[in-house]
Design brief:
- The complex is a heterodimer.
- In chain A, 68% of the residues lie in helices and 0% in strands.
- Chain A is mostly helical.
- Chain A folds into 2 domains: 26-106, Rna Polymerase Sigma Factor, Chain: A (Orthogonal Bundle); 109-198, Arc Repressor Mutant, subunit A (Orthogonal Bundle), CATH 1.10.10.10.
- By secondary structure, chain B is α+β, with helices and mostly antiparallel strands.
- Among the domains of chain B are: 3-51, no CATH class; 140-259, Phosphorylase Kinase, domain 1, CATH 3.30.200.
- Helices cover 50% and strands 19% of the residues of chain B.
- Chain B has 7 helices and 7 strands.
- A 7-stranded antiparallel sheet of chain B has the order 1-2-3-4-7-6-5, with helices on both faces.
- Classes of the chains: A mainly alpha, B alpha+beta.
- At the A-B interface, helix 1, helix 2, helix 3, helix 4 and helix 7 of A face helix 1, helix 3, helix 4 and helix 5 of B.
Chain lengths: 204, 264
Amino acid sequence: MLDRTQTTALTVRWTTGHETMSADSDADRSRRFREAALPHLDDVYTLARYLMRDAVDAEDAVQECYLRALRHFDSYRGPAMKPWLLAILRNVCVVEFGRRSKQPALADSTDAEASADQNPMWQEPEASPEAALLRRHDDKTIRHLVAALPQPFREVIVLREINDLSYGEIAGVAGVPVGTVMSRLARARSMLRAAWNAAEGSTP
Amino acid sequence: MNCSEAEVLINALIDGELDAGHAREVEAHVATCPSCAAKLAAFRAMHQAMAETDVKEKAPAHLRSRIEAALPAATTRPEGSGKSRQMTWRTFFGGLTVGAVLSAAVAASLVIAVFRDDRNQQITGEIVSAHLRSLQADHLTDVQTSDRHTVKPWFNGKIDVSPPVIDLTAQGFTLIGGRLDYINGKEVASVVYRRREHVINLFVAQGLGAEHAAMTGETRHGFNVRHWTEGGLDFWAVSDINADELDEFCRRLTTALHSVPPPS
């Protein structure tokens, strides 16, 4: 163990180091937050657009998300910054904006899942090998197809395919177990596939 | 495996969330089920299409500046008073804090030990997955030759290690080529051998974080894996040949490594 002299020396050095840190911690903190959080602005905005649909609501949600994130930045210990921000954004959308959004944004999650249960996707006609070939769509059409999915399925597709999160990260953002993420994603892709092939587009 | 089980796993396969064993199961099901095969192809095509088209929204410039303005500016706070008060407070608790720092260090070393074991497990899993990929994706070799003087220079400049390439044809292990692969997000060299109809992948890497000086062996998803460290390089031999033959391969390889000075 350390003898008394060593302990004192260590204490002084540690304390001095800490003083220096706390003196400019505000500026430092703000700078660190900008560097960590702002690169994910497009991802946060994308999820907001798909959840809120209304552009003005989406922008308000994104701003509120960043202000909240800054307030909680001191207690941030992970996960990765992107899923952390997206989880905050989703929370903002649910709590603050869910009510006043023109189209119900997140409120009817369970309803949508229940109605999807009544119309299971595996009743779709047996796919022939030809049906495996997808129509080609431009980005505008693809956005419309994704936006037309019912809420929990839209959310999981956006988080996976556009925000590029892992299943574990999606579970954290959506606040559901990984198993639920997997079954939602399976149904979401089946729905999207049906809509994809029904939409006007060029055949491959 | 039935189709509704397969449906969930097909998605996990596309998203790279399946371990090697499940990946093999779902691929076996897809091979016999046209409906699931069509589903896999369609999901994969959508996944690809969304990755390639510009479906991500760009945050408008006015939103970016609005947020920038709302965040506190990164200006330095003037050196405050109250510093001397903090100093006494900290000096008082200082000794206590050092104690806490020390026990945190002890705790951290425990975490590292546990984590390292996990990490070895995870790397072994990735090694087996890479071996499986090399068999399934029809991408066994990037350079196909039985001449070690062709294989070895091929790795130069592609990777930061120079893997030893040893011809063991005389010993019954035919050198068939080399390949670049990825383990844990890092480029590794694979030297590929064949024993009768069986493939042996010999992965060679540096600083992957797996630590075993002595040779270790285990079986994963029916594949035998041998791992050892030598001359600062990590070696993994993976194959479906039986354990005795794989041991023989490793023995002959290390013997040859020691007896032949590496050609420059």
